[in-house]
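re: the backbone from monday

yeah here it is again, tokenized this time
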């Protein structure tokens, strides 16, 4: 059973899709990445029985940058095992202090080159893991939730402090035309997890990249299994 395309129009005041090669100072791609687009669909509807495959991104507003300077904490959230011990009361919680004398604690100012006033039309498909008999029901449930503006959590545009708003696009709706944008974006982040099998959200990051080219305001996204998607080579044990 072939999946049908589901479409959301997504917009927001601010967005930041950080380029991985610029780790310290955040610098956004000019267009939303497939992984960020996937997270918007997952915020509306997701089940362990399937994954979302983004197929096409239409840019409805030309990219515009804005420089931001923000305070960020230096520390990192500990491993899930440590947090579980805190929850069970087996170890005292260790907060992330915004101020402190420790070299690795406290906060520091970071420069962010973010996008402002963005709007995209994103197309994606539900790809079941195995049996596809429930695909029509899954697609119908997504459309019901999208039409009513329901979501599991507030979707966001790269950073959680940049909320995303969405609207379901009808299948026969032409809508606004993409902006006349032609750009070779170079290597773009495809995803940060291995999408070849279920249950990967708790795995270590598995970065994948692809060569992104916007033509007439449209970015076509290859399937994760496509040879155009470059993935890390797994070492044999």
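seq for it, each position gets an aa:
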């Amino acid at each position: 059973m072939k999946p049908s395309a589901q479409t959301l129009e997504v917009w927001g005041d601010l967005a930041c899709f950080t380029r991985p090669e610029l780790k310290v100072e955040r610098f956004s791609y000019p267009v939303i990445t497939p992984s960020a687009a996937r997270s918007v669909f997952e915020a509306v509807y997701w089940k362990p029985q399937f994954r979302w495959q983004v197929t096409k991104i239409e840019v409805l507003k030309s990219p515009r940058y804005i420089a931001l300077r923000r305070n960020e904490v230096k520390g990192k959230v500990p491993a899930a095992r440590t947090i579980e011990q805190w929850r069970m009361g087996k170890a005292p919680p260790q907060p992330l202090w915004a101020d402190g004398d420790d070299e690795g604690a406290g906060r520091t100012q970071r420069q962010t080159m973010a996008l402002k006033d963005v709007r995209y039309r994103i197309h994606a498909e539900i790809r079941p893991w195995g049996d596809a008999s429930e695909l029509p029901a899954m697609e119908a449930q997504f459309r019901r939730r999208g039409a009513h503006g329901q979501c599991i959590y507030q979707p966001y545009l790269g950073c959680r402090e940049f909320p995303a708003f969405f609207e379901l696009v009808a299948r026969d709706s032409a809508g606004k035309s993409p902006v006349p944008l032609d750009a070779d974006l170079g290597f773009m982040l495809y995803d940060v997890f291995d999408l070849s099998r279920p249950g990967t959200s708790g795995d270590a990051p598995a970065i994948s990249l692809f060569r992104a080219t916007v033509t007439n305001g449209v970015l076509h996204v290859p399937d994760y299994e496509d040879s155009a998607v470059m993935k890390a080579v797994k070492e044999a044990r």
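The first helix runs from residue 34 to 44. The radius of gyration is 19 Å.
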